[in-house]
Amino acid sequence: MTVIARRPVAASPLAWLAWGFVGFFLVFMLALVAAVLVNSLGTRWLDHWLPDGYTTHWYGDAWREFGLTSVMLVTIEIAAAVLALSLLIGVPASYALARRSFPGRGLVMLAFLIPLLLPPVTYGIPLATVLLRHDLGGTLTGVILANLVPSVPFVILTMTPFIEQIDPRIEAAARTLGAGTATIFVRVLGPLLVPGMLAAGLLVLVRTVGMFELSFFTAGPGTQPLVVVLYYAAFAPGVRASQSIDAMAVIYMGLMLMLLVAALSFVNPTNLVARLRENT
After folding, report:
1. Whole-prediction pTM
2. Per residue in 80-103, pLDDT tens?
3. What is the domain range of residue 16?
4. Overall domain count for the chain
């Protein structure tokens, strides 16, 4: 038997160009992050490749100057409230979409997915106007309500496939044994939905902590999360040490990196993209 050896297919110039662009982008991003990190630890950095010396006191200065203790508490309050309300609304909605067929189901799913397809600024300004008219602008409640708009669809997008994979005969068997709807949802479906709820919750946390536009439009003094405070520290009038701003940026990057790593350990982004394409 003759074995024909196949020649390796050479990559096309377009493929090399694409990989070169990806490599350049990654190197550029790593260099940018490294510059911020080094500057946050440098005593003075003028016209040399590296700072004149290194210190960590800029982190303490940033924490005191920008009141990061209260800012972190506000950020945690907003993220926790959005997480709880998103799961409370999104899980039952996902169950209805996964288990029930009704006229207009596709339109309902599309309506839930529109906030994920549109840039937040397109609906953030009208939403902020409505909240101001109802005296919710600049309040913690207003920030939470605004962040629910993209967070609930994230829960639905994540939970609907989870519920569809659960055999409906499990629920039917529980009903034949006399279990009611609430009992089935809590004691039968609840343990099976925990992985999906955990994945959805992590996505909501990442989305909420990283959401700048909606929080910027709706937050006021005392209700600004970390990402908005970081923006004002960098661009608001006044003289501030660049090292302190970079130190706060490193804190924010570290927080987002921890949430992102945790989310990616439970969620496959390709599954979310495939699900999004199926419903659009």
Report:
1. 0.78
2. 999 999 999 998 888 888 887 778
3. 11-55
4. 2
